[in-house]
Write a sequence for this structure.
């Protein structure tokens, strides 16, 4: 599969853009583990236009993680165009537009998935952003606003007509948020539509290698995007890639997984500072499947998530590894 000449290989796996998750360190780890392309945390167009330092820092990428997309969201065409032009100067491979974020603080203001209630404005923004930059523009969205308005099969061709180079669809409506199960049937129907010439990327509930393979086989999508299943588990891409390429999965040594978590802690501290680097990594430590279901683990978990220094946190991880995963 390729997007505007960017070759992502056969049946590629992509890392979804996620706030407070897909920082530069995590993106690099996922690329190393088999993600064909990664996305930054989504970036507020309004904040970019206002030169908010914390938002501008999200634009920092490095060549080792390419191909990489920077995703923007906003509610006005003016801000989105100006933001896209700012992002273009940061040098990503792709600019992605977020029409799918369901959280209230975004959608209630008419941005993200809120755009699904105003399709003329959504299309106007898309067309203007495409015309304003020379980089390929893609879109990520949902099936529709609610179960009575699943409009993706009509919306897809219209977005394509605006000039986007690929479309990612999360198999839920905005009203579902992240509850229930993702419905891939409409994603498959959109992919099968003879009008669609751009790649269709499926997203939603891809948590295992088997689910990734099933998405390709049953729905014919060009790529699969992995989101929450990657929290604290960049190796999920390695496991999925194994099954897609060889038909089998060889278990990854848990000690290698611990080393990935240690490296993530250390690199986040190097890139930010000790206090914020640890805070930024806690979401991954809290969610990592490596530590799920361990007996009498509660006190270790509390200590791990309360640690405030690199030395203390690494010592706790060492204790957990020694106790529960003896060599």
């Amino acid at each position: 599969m390729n997007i505007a000449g960017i070759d992502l290989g056969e049946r590629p796996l992509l890392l979804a853009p996620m706030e407070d998750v897909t920082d530069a360190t995590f993106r690099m780890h996922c690329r190393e583990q088999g993600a064909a392309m990664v996305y930054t945390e989504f970036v507020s167009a309004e904040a970019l236009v206002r030169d908010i330092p914390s938002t501008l820092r999200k634009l920092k990428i490095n060549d080792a993680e390419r191909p990489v997309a920077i995703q923007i969201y906003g509610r006005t065409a003016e801000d989105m165009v100006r933001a896209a032009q700012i992002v273009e100067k940061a040098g990503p491979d792709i600019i992605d537009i977020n029409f799918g974020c369901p959280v209230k603080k975004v959608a209630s203001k008419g941005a993200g998935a809120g755009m699904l209630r105003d399709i003329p404005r959504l299309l106007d923004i898309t067309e203007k952003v495409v015309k304003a930059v020379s980089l390929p523009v893609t879109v990520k969205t949902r099936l529709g606003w609610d179960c009575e308005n699943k409009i993706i099969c009509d919306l897809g061709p219209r977005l394509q007509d605006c000039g986007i180079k690929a479309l990612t669809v999360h198999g839920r409506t905005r009203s579902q948020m992240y509850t229930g199960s993702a419905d891939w049937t409409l994603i498959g129907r959109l992919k099968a539509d003879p009008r669609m010439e751009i790649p269709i990327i499926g997203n939603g509930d891809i948590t295992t290698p088997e689910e990734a393979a099933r998405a390709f086989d049953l729905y014919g999508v060009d790529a699969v995007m992995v989101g929450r299943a990657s929290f604290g588990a960049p190796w999920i891409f390695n496991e999925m890639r194994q099954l897609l390429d060889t038909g089998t999965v060889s278990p990854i040594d848990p000690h290698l997984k611990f080393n990935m978590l240690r490296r993530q802690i250390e690199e986040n501290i190097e890139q930010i500072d000790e206090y914020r680097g640890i805070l930024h990594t806690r979401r991954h430590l809290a969610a990592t499947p490596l530590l799920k279901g361990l007996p009498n683990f509660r006190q270790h978990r509390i200590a791990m998530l309360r640690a405030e220094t690199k030395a203390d946190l690494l010592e706790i991880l060492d204790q957990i590894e020694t106790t529960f995963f003896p060599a």
Notes: The chain has a mean pLDDT of 95. The longest helix spans residues 254-271. The two ends are 41 Å apart (CA to CA).
